[in-house]
Amino acid sequence: MKKNYTIPIFIPEKACPFRCIYCNQYAIASKIQSPSIEEVKEIIETHLKTFPAHGVKRLGFFGGSFTGISMEEQNQYLDVVLPYIESNRVESIMLSTRPDYISEEILDNLKRYKVGIIDMGAHYTRVYPTLVIKDTALEAMYKSGEYKPLSLEQAVEWCKHLMIIFDKNNVTILRMGLHPSEGLITGNRLVAGPFHVSFKELVLSALWRENLEEALYGKHGKKIVIEVSSKSINAATGFKSANKKYFLEKFGSVSFIINNNLTGKEFNIYIDDDHHSR
Question: Which end of the chain, C or N, has fewer beta carbons within 10 A?
């Protein structure tokens, strides 16, 4: 399966009819003005130079309701991207919108520009646990005690179950956790909430621990060998080897090894001479 690469074009708060209580686009994207047409070209070229030859390359208009801006301005942006689509340097366009900013006219126009993600039903999703960002209505609610954010542990647990639901329904999670902009990393823009630069890795780690613990239930004092694919080894051993340390403490002898005959979330467990596959 080819890896997906996305070129992000942020159009902060463009055409939003109101500001959501948790939203501060500048703090999240470190950008307060929409890019010019020339800046869009520069962003595209810069990202394409960093992408490997193989992989699915897409462009996304994020940050506001793209279809809520005037048709003329939509087309100015889409005109920049269209040559990249026609030359196969970019494979598709995705964008942020809302139901009341969609019409037959808008859909026909987007189709003309090869926008490839507007079908009914979810194929992709992003999961963003709520953070309290400076200069938002939610900050005032947090400081007054009206709102209490999830802890990091709670957010990981909730998102672990979301990941299971989306996986069962063949919905690809493009991102889990807000992009770690400088303001979030330094804490200059973050007031409270479950932020972590490797949030998705924490969720994957928790999911693997749950699956492995279920398979190892009732097994004690044994030598454990767990086989996983090379692509899953980091998630299986856990963020900063947390799962490996956990099972070492529990069983005394646990090792993770790579078996490239396995794929995805498949794993084999050897307990002494017994062989268990999942």
Answer: N
To the nearest whole number, what is the mean pLDDT of the chain?
Answer: 87
Residue 276 pLDDT > 70, yes or no?
no
- What is the SS3 assignment for the chain? CCCEEEEEEECCCCCCCCCCCCCCHHHHHCCCCCCCHHHHHHHHHHHHHHCCCCCEEEEEEECCCHHHCCHHHHHHHHHHHHHHHHCCCCCEEEECCCHHHCCHHHHHHHHHCCECCCCCCCCEEEECCCCEECCCHHHHHHHCCCCCCCCHHHHHHHHHHHHHHHHHCCCEEEEECCCCCHHHHHCCCEEECCCCCCHHHHHHHHHHHHHHHHHCCCCCCCEEEEEECCCCHHHHHCHHHHHHHHHHHHHCEEEEEECCCCCCCCCEEEECCEEEEC
Task: Give 56-103 pLDDT, tens digit per residue.
Answer: 899 999 877 889 888 999 999 999 999 999 999 999 898 888 888 889
Residue pLDDT, tens place only, 202-212: 999 999 999 99
